[in-house]
Amino acid sequence: MIRRVFALLAALVLIPVVTATPALAYEPVNIVHTEHVQAGPYGLTVGFSTWPLRAMQSLDFTFIPDGGIEDKTGTFMRTGPSGSHTRPLPMARHPRKRDVWGLDVFALQVEGKWKFDFTIDGPQGHGAGALTNLQVLPQPGPPLALSWAVCSIPFVALIGFLIVVWRRGKVRQLAVA
Amino acid sequence: MRPIGAGFVLLGAGISMVGTSWDVQWHIDVGPDTFFTLPHLFIYAGSAIAGIASLVVVLAVTAAQRRGETPDPRDGGVAIRVFGGRFTAPLGYLVTGVGAAAFLLYGLIDLWWHGVYGFDAVLNSPPHIALFTTISITMIGAVIVAAAGREKRWGRFATMISVPLLMTFFPITANAFQGVNLPFDTIVASTTLIIVLLLVLTRAAVGRPGIAIGTAAALLAMQAILWVFTPWAAVTYADAVGLPLRDGMGGEPPLIPSGIPLAAIVAAVAIELLFRRGGPALAGGVAGLILGLTFVVQRDVLGFAPSPVTTVDLIATTLAGALFGLLGGFLGARFGATLRLREKVTA
């Protein structure tokens, strides 16, 4: 009997898994706002898929040099409101928009004024420029402390369970002694 | 029924593990995410399989108990009376089932989270940490189920599979502490704590020399499988859905298997040698020293250290490894002894 129930349950779970078609359609990159940056001889258009920006909310960024990316390389460095910054990272094509550089579903984690530094190397030599005072508004959703409190419940429950188990172990050790 | 129930729980836990490693690599190498990707389906199916198997076993044990049979503690651990005795649940299956149910609940919260914040694939968002914790709870249940059958060959075999699953999975939760600024590598320290604790626990719970080495060998085998499977699956799935790899990606070592210390087997040998002579805490401390030193180097060589490792970092993290290992040995011995409990418990 129990074997049959297991077989049925296994079928119920495994059939959808085996026959599922993976999500084939990925959303196109939809730019709703742009900013212009002059990096030496190169004009650069920075695109955002949502505007205004909010902390922790992810979006697509595109970086499009005038004349396309074909004959150019570049770097990109982010500086947060506190002044801490990333290393200059090489420009990479946007995974869903391969003709331009970009970041896919990426979030700036902190509210405040951000700065993007760019360098571009191409036929007209080296150029550097920056997008300053990029305003990031406060995060949407409930306060982060509340989200963490709700999502810490399993961990706290696990610790509680382990404490109970620990105390039973002591009982056993006493019994053995 | 015993090996079947345990088998389904292990199958579920294993599928969750494979799905997670695949999913993480997918985000690194390829990128775009929706809620319904194949790796996500694996992760959810894993919890569903483990959870449903637990539910069936709990119902079967409850029915048997109502017929007047005494629950056998080798069948998933000591029997716990739940809801005032309405159900009789073997501890291991109870823990697995609660973990799986909580996982599905936090899956809904994660869906809401992505609706508000978008699909930025970060490991350490609050719902992701909750999901990792609940899968870990499911895997802890699997360890309890396996260890309950320790006198039988299937029980020891299941222990050597369930413990490495938990060793690989639980440290992912340590990503929550990534932002905390300490003089040593927190990922190395927490991974060391968990691995040493579980090796000592296994040795104490099963009570057979060599079981810690067997468990570490199974961990190494699992690491090898994930190392080969994960990048292959990410690339194959990307091809299947017509997505390209990110620029400059695809050549780096896969993240989840890289996060397993390669020297765990050396640490296991130290534990086997010192467990009786020096005591579990000392054995854990020595094992922790080995893991602290080697894992910080491993992370640096593979390119996962947050910043280049200096001599000071190396010494600080090695010492932290020894201390966390000492703690792990101490905790593991007690928890292992508790897993040997056979008398009935009412809660």
Structural description of this entry:
The complex is a heterodimer of chains A (177) and B (347). In chain A, the strands form 2 sheets. A 5-stranded antiparallel β-sheet of chain A has the order 1-2-4-8-7, with no helix packed on it. Chain A has a 5-stranded mixed β-sheet with strand order 3-10-9-5-6, with no helix packed on it. Chain A has 2 domains: 33-137, Sandwich (Immunoglobulin-like), CATH 2.60.40; 144-176. Chain A is an alpha+beta fold. Chain A starts with a helix and ends with a helix. Chain A has 3 helices and 10 strands, in the order αββββββββββαα. Chain A has helices at residues 2-19, 144-151, 153-176, and strands spanning 33-39, 42-48, 53-54, 59-65, 73-79, 89-90, 93-94, 97-106, 112-122, 125-137. The longest helix of chain A has 24 residues, at 153-176. With 347 residues, chain B is an all-alpha fold. Chain B has one domain. Chain B is 70% helix and 2% strand. Chain B contains 11 helices and 2 strands, in the order H-H-E-E-H-H-H-H-H-H-H-H-H. Chain B has helices spanning 2-29, 38-66, 91-117, 126-148, 153-169, 186-206, 211-240, 255-258, 264-274, 280-302, 311-339; strands spanning 79-82, 87-90. Chain B has a two-stranded antiparallel ribbon. In chain B, helix 4 packs antiparallel against helix 5. The relative contact order of chain B is 0.13. The mean pLDDT of chain B is 90.
Detail the topology: elements first, then pairings.
The complex is a heterodimer of chains A (177) and B (347).
Chain A: H1 2-19, E1 33-39, E2 42-48, E3 53-54, E4 59-65, E5 73-79, E6 89-90, E7 93-94, E8 97-106, E9 112-122, E10 125-137, H2 144-151, H3 153-176
Parallel strand pairs in A: 3-10
Antiparallel strand pairs in A: 1-2, 2-4, 4-8, 5-6, 5-9, 7-8, 9-10
Chain B: H1 2-29, H2 38-66, E1 79-82, E2 87-90, H3 91-117, H4 126-148, H5 153-169, H6 186-206, H7 211-240, H8 255-258, H9 264-274, H10 280-302, H11 311-339
Antiparallel strand pairs in B: 1-2
Helix pairs in contact in B: 1-2, 1-4, 1-5, 1-7, 2-3, 3-4, 4-5, 5-6, 5-7, 6-7, 6-9, 6-10, 6-11, 7-9, 9-10, 10-11
